Amino acid sequence: MPRPILATIHFAALQHNLDRARRAALDSRVWAVVKANAYGHGIENVFEAFRAADGFALLDLDEAERVRALGWRGPVLLLEGVFEPRDLELCSRLDLWHAVHCDAQIDWLAAHKTQVPHRVFLKMNSGMNRLGFTPERFRAAWTRLNALPQVDEISLMTHFSDADSPRGIAQQLEVFDETTRDLPGERSIANSAATLRHAAAARADWVRPGILLYGSSPDFPEHDAAHWQLQPGMTLATKLISVQTLEAGDTIGYGSRFTADGPLRVGVAAVGYGDGYPRHCDTGTPVLVNGVRTRMVGRVSMDMITVDLTPVPDAGFGSEVTLWGRASNGAVLSIDEVAKAAGTVGYELMCAVARRVPVVAD
Fold this sequence. Notes:
alpha/beta
């Protein structure tokens, strides 16, 4: 009998979230962003749910090969472009579109021998200050690309740093619009937060939703997933494997971080940081037991956590424990709440689920 921990990927929820992105994007085409192995969900587990997207966007060639092997014949975009010249050979063979964000990538294209010109997305650094050409250098980069016989169509893209915050997108959008005003080519500018919060202003040919597809709010805690009508794409669940009864003054777990102030039933759940559950969670982190909201107590161990059973007096050995996602009774615990307790974001928890955790798609 394996350990009872299980990650379940919810097909219908993923479909719902993609439809939510499409409705928010107005008439823009939608990239389904499946980088980081579909944010930890598994590309093979989400592929059918995202077939209604207009394209798949990702980071590395291995993921691109997997998408093609699943039968996708539409657009596939490498969001960071190629990492060395020989990558362009695979782009040609797999018909991959790819970002261009630096001079080296243009140099590689200029030296690349191909019979089929490439579709590229020229990236502007409009204020994020990670990848891309500054506005002052953007047009020169476009001119170089446009002169290459190895390049077919040039699309234009940028990435917003503050679409999820009060600062918003206005300043970066103004820079992008002003710099590209008379340049031809399709535009792609909106991530999840911009798609939901600034749909009209960030209107373009393509949107690039990522985290929202998986049911996490891109601007939590200002808005939760329910506010944006998103459904959890993943449930991480386990079971109680022991129950302890504490008296006043008893402590529990490493470091004796939790002390009972009276009689207390505590359940031991088979999950820990060895499974990807965040070690930085502490007493008070929300958990569902039999679909009833309660709290974790004490410190997270490698293989176990302990939970307060006071709100669930009928819970015992074998009772269902939902770490995030949807419980059997339909109750939902947002991954964003758990991430907040760990001092991080839902993105990290999704991507951190350990390989030893079995994953099934419903």
